Amino acid sequence: MTTGDGRRTTGDGRQTTGDGRQTTGDGRQTTGDGRRLTDDTRRTTGDGPTATGEFEMVVGLEVHVQLKTATKIFCRCSTDFGAPPNVNTCPVCLALPGALPVLNDHAVELAIRAALALGCEIQTTSIFARKNYFYPDLPKGYQISQFDRPVATNGRLRIVVREGDAPIDIGITRAHLEEDAGKSIHDRFPSATAVDLNRTGVPLLEIVSEPDLRGSEAAAAYLRALKQILEYVDVSDVSMEEGSLRVDANVSARRFGDERLGTKTEVKNLNSFSAVARALEVEFARQCAILARGGRVEQQTMLWDERAEEVRPARSKEGSHDYRYFPEPDLPPLVVSPDRVERIRAALPELPSARRDRYRRDYSTLTEYDIGVLTSSAAVGDYFEQLASGSGDAKTAANWLMGEVLAALKSTGRGITSFPVRPDALSTLLHMVRDGTVSHSAAKQIFGIMIATRDAPTQIAEREGLLKVTDDSALVRWIDEVFSEHPDEAKRFVAGERRLQGVFVGHVMKRSGGSADPKRVNQLLVSRTAGT
Amino acid sequence: MTAATESVRAAFARATEVGAGRSALNILLYADQNGALERAAELDRAPTGGALEGRPVVLKDNIATLSLPTTCGSRILEGYVSPFEATATRRLRDAGAVVIGKSNMDEFAMGSSTENSAFGPTRNPLAPDRVPGGSSGGSAAAVASGIARIALGSETGGSVRQPAAFCGIVGVKPTYGRVSRYGLVAFASSLDQIGVFGQRVDDAAACLGVIAGADLLDSTCAPEPVPDYRAASRDGVRGLVIGRPVEYFPAELDGRIREKCDAAFARLAGLGAEVRDVSLPHSRLAIEVYYIIAPAEASSNLARFDGARYGLRIEGDGLRGMYEATRSRGFGAEVTRRILLGTYVLSAGYYDAYYRKAQQVRALIARDFQQVFASGVDLLFTPTTPTTAFPIGSKSDPYEMYLSDVFTCTANLAGVPAMSQPIGRIDGLPVGGQFIAPHFAERRMFAAAYALEAALGEEAGR
Fold first, then answer.
1. What is the pLDDT of residues A200-227, one digit of tens each?
2. Do A132 and B303 touch (CB under 8 A)?
3. In sequence order, what are the residues at sequence separation of 6 or more whose Cβ sits closer than 8 angstroms to the Cβ of residue B298?
4. Helix and strand totals (H; E) in chain A
5. Are A432 and A396 in contact (CB under 8 A)?
6. Whose CA is closest to B208, among B409, B445, B381, B448?
7. Which fold has domain B3-232?
8. Phi, psi (5° rounding) for residue B240?
9. Catalytic site residue B190?
């Protein structure tokens, strides 16, 4: 009953929760399975296995995304990360007396782009509000945010919890613009707190989900999907490490089949996707233990302690603040015309799900796994598409990209857009393999040199003597040499022990530095055997 | 020595003569004679031809200046010098005006008598045992005593018009958004507006013409073009319909003030205006609404004075102790009262009953004005204040003090322009009459003010 009312008050958003579960109807199977699966995981990870078994985890996530603007949301200071403390500041973000905020329109543009990618409705009029609280890293004594009239509402994000599961839609209640606070540094000086206000006023989009997520795996899947879509539309660096994506999790427990939502707690201080999942499990287990012995969960803010792998209540009842929100009188209402929304919508890049559909259509040789990896980011997909069309062979392009290229990226920690080997050069190399100019193993060597030197593959192949050697005189000389190095095996091979042929091919290939044509080497070796 | 230097020298000589310093009338908190003379000499050497070339100007202490402190009459900002200047300050200087000093004010513009300054009260130059009004009392007194012909003040609920009335000069509160608030230290952002004082209507018109207009640094500043306000001196009032809002002439109004207003109406009628009784029924709720909205915004605007970055800082037990010590010692009683009041009305559980309700009534007050102006009324005329300047220390009850703004704060709530000008004297003390105009109709308002000023002549009691 309460949930029913609650649903109506929160409006459409909540509806999704209600339906979410019922609609998952056809997906009910999946959700059902999902429940049992997450439940099983809990049995193995949670510390209250018997307690958690009767309960389902209900999660809603609040994600703060730093929008990729050059300047702050209400002043012209740079948003550069890593400048010396308090350098990127001005009268506005220092809250000097008499300074006033002026909205950065690019932040609005990026917020709308992100919200549209998440299927949100963009509000023609939204209102900035002041969230009042005292803290040294909040210079004005209030944060400019949006409260009861956010810029975007009522979206959804499609996620797949586990490979092979049917996709489910997670409701997005709202997305609103706000400014970041500064940074308090407590461990720099022995008896004082240092404050760095470089980050003050950096634009954030807070994306609030419905409590539609069931279990920590679903929460992690939601975060992966969200990160991916935000990367696709290029609104944020979405890096938890650099703080451009931050997550607070609302979690509650209820008995399976119960319609009502349980009392939630908010878990903060989550520094990675895996921390989110682990913290949820730990907090859920704590709540289950309370509920199982007939107790009541207290609504409060919990902090995740990464090292101790535990949650503990935030000091000083952080959750019980009265923020005294009221409309920000220094800023007029944010008015976004339907025309502008349509312009931004029309300019949206292809989203991940559309790209996956297209790959299924256009590249029949790829597996679902391939498609998942190749569409993991728009940049990887773009690289793949150029490579596939340049090389004329999608499957080989996919294999090279997923093997050599991604491995090289991983070891260098670089992004694919700044990867030194561009798709056209790599296409040339793949052509060289296909037409027999170089062997596969030589190609790998050439690739390594391309990363280091950015030289053209043909040039490298010539310079390093990696062109495939088909000249019999060179091949015969190498065979003679390896035969004389391994006289016993040579004798046995010539006498007819054919299984040694592979070993000798290997020796010759090695001696040739990969340049020998293995096909011809095989033929020449066979011609030496007794049978001929 | 030529014009600019002569004016600036004369201004400082006059300041000394009238006792503008802290020990006497306490009009100017900060003055920079050398800087002002240097600037004047520069102007004399290379005139800019600006609209206010060489004219000395006094600024209220809550308007940011580079050369002088900006302390809002508060302990908490004592010694604070702004690293940037207000848009209004810059425009005055660009027009050739010479800033000679910063004037005393009620702390953070909260008050109607300039008794709430942390640096002592300002005395009314016309009657030193009386208040000059407030909160821009220092600027009003500077103009009334002849130190400068023009000065800037700021309005939130009547803080320019009321002291103008008490000091017998002209005071203008422009339309909300007419003048940039950038560099005006915020009291209540949705009400605040920089205003101008002038010895005569023409001084105020010239000054407003310079500081008005769009500013990219203030998102609430309007893009409307700025007409030539001084040209309004030729417009006259013939054919204008001037409303007499009955709520502003209540039965208990001082009969002598009513008489002065009636005389002004008679003059206006004589010049060809039509006087018509009108009603603004929600205006009677204005004080209550004002004293919810203004403190609510103030409680938030003044949160930045926390001792962390600038201004006063008094160490205490931990962070909270520092906040408490700094703010309780840094703010005076009236400011503290309003912060508490504002915090209360925004609190969970009270917001709907107070703040939201007040915003709804504010909309009704504004609608009254719209409807009256839409009905063919061009301007309204009312008394500026219910009394003349009262003795220093005579109003100890804050609510009684708040009633000083009963006829003025409606214009702030509605965002419309209004101005006060002298219309006579009672027992030697000036009486102010107020014109109120529709949004951005300052030129029409000035036209009537010029006409009335000319018609009253000596009778205005300047």
1. 999 999 999 999 999 999 999 999 999 9
2. yes
3. B108, B110, B187, B188, B335, B338, B339, B342
4. 20, 16
5. no
6. B445
7. Amidase signature (AS) enzymes (3.90.1300)
8. -75, 145
9. no
Contacting residues for A72 by C-beta, under 8 A, at least 6 apart: A78, A79, A88, A93, A104, A179, A200, A201, A202, A203
Q: Is pLDDT of A79 > 80?
A: yes
CB B155 within 8 A of CB B195: yes
Cα–Cα distance measured from residue A160 to residue A368, given in angstroms and rounded to the nearest whole number: 13
**For residue B11, what pLDDT is reported?**
98
- Is there a contact between A131 and A325 (Cβ–Cβ < 8 Å)? yes
What is the CA angle B2-B5-B7, rounded to 5? Answer: 100
Cis previous bond, B23, omega within 30? no
Q: Please tell me which of the candidates B72, B308, B346 has its beta carbon nearest to residue A326.
A: B346
Query: Does residue B343 sit at the A interface (CB-CB below 8 Å)?
Result: yes
Give the gyration radius of chain A's Cα atoms. 30
For an interface test with A, give the residue of B87, B192, B306 to mutate (most A CBs within 10 A): B306
User: Angle, nearest 10°, between helix axes A352-362 and A378-391?
Assistant: 20
Question: Could you tell me which chain A residue has the CA closest to the CA of B71?
Answer: A97
Residue type for A275, please?
Answer: A
The answer to whether the CB atoms of A98 and B299 lie below 8 A apart is: no
Band (pLDDT 50/70/90 cuts) for residue A467 is confident
Which region holds residue A98: left if phi is over 0, alpha if psi is between -120 and 50, else beta? Answer: left
Contact: A331, B219; criterion CB under 8 Å:
yes
Annotated catalytic residue: which of B154, B159, B404, B420? Answer: B159
Burial A484-504 (b: 16+ CB within 10 A, else e): eebeebbeebbeeeeebbeeb
Domains, in order of start, for chain A: 2-343 (no CATH), 472-528 (1.10.10)
Half-sphere exposure of B450 (CA within 13 A, CB side): 21
Question: What ipTM goes with this model?
Answer: 0.97
- pLDDT band with cut points at 50, 70 and 90 for residue A530: low
Give the Cα separation of B224 and B214 in Å (integer).
Answer: 7
3 state DSSP class of A162: coil
Q: Is B159 a catalytic residue?
A: yes
Token output for B143:
């103009």
